[in-house]
Specification:
- The complex is a heterodimer of chains A (about 110) and B (about 120).
- Chain A is about 0% helix and about 50% strand.
- Chain A is built from no helices and 11 strands.
- Chain A is globular, with a radius of gyration of 13 Å.
- The mean pLDDT of chain A is about 95.
- By secondary structure, chain B is mainly β.
- Chain B has a 6-stranded mixed sheet with strand order 2-10-9-4-5-6, with no helix packed on it.
- Classes of the chains: A mainly beta (about 110), B mainly beta (about 120).
Chain lengths: ~110, ~120
């Protein structure tokens, strides 16, 4: 199984400042079709998860461009260029390259 | 507009059964694999099961294998999760989500609001 780890697990940030979350997989997430199915999800308090980024770096429809994803193979990063109040929540990386699908433990982003 | 609406959750005793449903609309349901993901209170996300677009291939987390059965009715645009032999540790909000698309687009792009399953005596 691809075990997903995230750092940090908690990230207090100042409004308007950048934030960065790292995600590492225990195995390469490159699929046999050449794609890397690494997603980033946001879960606001009391809400279901919401897709932010798919296939490492593609912003999903309606996602602000202050969110960006990067990485390759086993190491990935989500960056928020300027944190806004609505960005408070838990961020998960997840892989859908293989079964079982696996999620990182989540990174809680809140405002200092 | 893509919509996924779960139902069927509730309170059940250990060893009991429940059947969850996820009604899909706003997209060609029969073209997408679908998944169930759960979240125990105050915990992270855990993948439970996936079914391919036709229903012929299924995958399960080890924690539910042999107890849960995923299925779908493409004529009714509905996804199901039959849960038998429920345990206290199955207590969670259960979400359905779109999984593999017909093209090489986004996976897990739409999620339902979830349905709460509580297993307790």
């Amino acid at each position: 199984d691809a075990v997903m780890t995230q750092t940090p697990l908690s990230s207090p940030v100042t409004l308007g400042q950048p934030a960065s979350i790292s995600c590492r997989s225990s195995q390469s997430l490159v699929h046999s079709d050449g794609n890397t199915y690494l997603n980033w999800l946001q879960q606001r308090p009391g809400q279901p998860p919401r897709l932010l980024i798919y296939k490492i770096s593609n912003r999903f429809s309606g996602v602000p461009d202050r969110f960006s994803g990067s990485g390759a193979g086993t190491d990935f990063t989500l960056k928020i260029s300027r944190v806004e109040a609505e960005d408070v929540g838990v961020y998960y990386c997840m892989q859908a390259t293989q079964f079982p699908r696996t999620f990182g433990p989540g990174t809680k982003v809140d405002i200092k | 507009e893509v919509q996924l609406l779960e139902s069927g959750g509730g309170l059940v005793q250990p060893g009991g059964s429940l059947r969850l449903s996820c009604a899909a609309s706003g997209f060609t349901f029969s073209s997408y694999a679908m998944s169930w993901v759960r979240q125990a209170p105050g915990r992270g996300l855990e993948w439970v099961s996936t079914i391919d677009y036709g229903g012929g291939n299924t995958h399960y987390a080890d924690s539910v294998k042999g107890r849960f059965t995923i299925s779908r009715d493409n004529s009714e645009n509905t996804l199901y999760l039959q849960m038998n032999g429920l345990r206290v540790e199955d207590t969670a909000v259960y979400y359905c989500a779109r999984d593999v698309p017909p093209d090489s687009g986004s996976l897990f792009d739409y999620w339902g609001q979830g349905t709460l399953v509580t297993v307790s005596s």
